[in-house]
């Protein structure tokens, strides 16, 4: 899966990056909070509290590991709860937005949503999985979400793609495949070339791009992806499951079959 992550900053020791340090400090703060209450009643000053905390952690270092494990558990639990709530609250824009692209069976009872970027190598490799899923699942509706996260070229390609869908939605699938599977950097020029190759004039594309449709479409997807906690492409939504990464045909097919037969992605 293509992920977007900031360049890590290291401490002078080079051993810990900020996320790890923050977790340890959070654990220490938890211990401090537990100790500070009764200690404060005895009017012990800050240096004495810090000394007590330090001595306690040196004597019981496992407390930090236990606190970090519990913190991880709570964060994952909260993130999953937030995703489920987002899937419920945003079901309409996720599955039925007027700005989305639909492939496969538009009236299908099983839906697969894919967030992708035209410059994502994993998305290129995963395209064959999607084609095979459509061929072998006649009741499958595939919703494509333009999620350009790999730079300006990706944004430009997505803008052209939105224009193609507005002008000639029946040609989008062919355009999408040509651009996604093309070699080199996807950008405005390569996207316009792909559009022209399927019979859509550059003038029509450029005229369509004068509207706010592209920016509104992309912003809608960014907002949705942020609420779902998506960190890269490709990412999928199947039922109430958020699947991150190019997990392959087999896993997606199993989830779709279970969703169709059992109403959820596991039977």
Tell me what you see in this structure.
- This protein has 267 residues and is of the alpha+beta class.
- Helix content is 60%, strand content 11%.
- The protein contains eleven helices and seven strands.
- It has a five-stranded mixed sheet. Strands 1-5 form a two-stranded antiparallel sheet.
- The two termini are 27 Å apart.
From the alpha carbons, calculate the radius of gyration and give it in angstroms.
24 Å
Parts with pLDDT < 50 across at least 5 consecutive residues: 5-18
Tally the helices: what do you get? 11
Main pleated-sheet profile:
5 strands, mixed
Numbering strands along the chain, what is their spatial order in the largest sheet?
A: 2-4-3-6-7
> CA-to-CA gap between the ends?
27 Å
Q: How many individual β-strands?
A: 7
N-to-C series of helices and strands = EHHHHEEHEHHHHHEEEH
Helix content: 55-70%
Into which percentage range does the β-strand content fall? 5-15%
Q: What is the arithmetic mean of pLDDT? A: 84
Shape: globular
The secondary-structure class comes to alpha+beta
Task: Put the structure in a nutshell.
With 267 residues, this protein is an alpha+beta fold.
SSE map:
Elements lengths: L1 E2 L14 H24 L4 H14 L2 H28 L1 H6 L4 E4 L5 E7 L4 H16 L3 E7 L5 H16 L4 H9 L7 H10 L4 H7 L4 H16 L3 E2 L1 E4 L2 E4 L4 H14 L5
Parallel strand pairs: 3-4
Antiparallel strand pairs: 1-5, 2-4, 3-6, 6-7
Helix pairs in contact: 1-2, 1-3, 6-8, 6-9, 6-10, 7-8
Looking at this protein, list some descriptive labels.
single chain; 267 residues; alpha+beta; five-stranded mixed sheet; 60% helix; globular
């Amino acid at each position: 899966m293509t992920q977007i992550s900031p360049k890590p900053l290291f401490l002078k020791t080079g051993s810990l990056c900020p996320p790890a340090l923050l977790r340890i400090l959070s654990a220490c703060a938890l211990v401090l909070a537990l100790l500070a209450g009764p200690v404060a009643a005895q009017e012990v000053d800050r240096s004495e509290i810090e000394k007590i905390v330090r001595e306690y952690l040196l004597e019981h270092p496992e407390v930090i590991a236990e606190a970090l494990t519990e913190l991880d558990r709570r964060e994952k639990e909260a993130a999953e709860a937030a995703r489920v709530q987002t899937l419920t609250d945003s079901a309409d824009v996720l599955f039925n937005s007027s700005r989305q692209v639909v492939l496969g069976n538009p009236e299908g009872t099983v839906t697969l949503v894919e967030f992708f970027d035209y410059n994502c190598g994993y998305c290129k490799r995963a395209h064959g999985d999607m084609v095979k899923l459509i061929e072998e699942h006649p009741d499958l509706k595939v919703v494509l979400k333009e999620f350009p996260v790999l730079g300006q070229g990706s944004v430009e390609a997505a803008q052209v793609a939105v224009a193609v869908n507005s002008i000639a939605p029946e040609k989008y699938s062919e355009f999408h495949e040509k651009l996604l599977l093309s070699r080199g950097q996807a950008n405005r020029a390569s996207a316009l070339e792909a559009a022209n190759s399927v019979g859509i004039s550059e003038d029509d594309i450029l005229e369509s791009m004068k509207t706010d449709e592209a920016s509104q479409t992309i912003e809608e997807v960014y907002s949705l992806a942020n609420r779902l906690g998506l960190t890269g492409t490709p990412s999928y939504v199947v039922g109430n499951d958020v699947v991150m990464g190019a997990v392959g045909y087999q896993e997606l097919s199993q989830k779709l079959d279970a969703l169709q037969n059992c109403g959820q992605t596991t039977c």
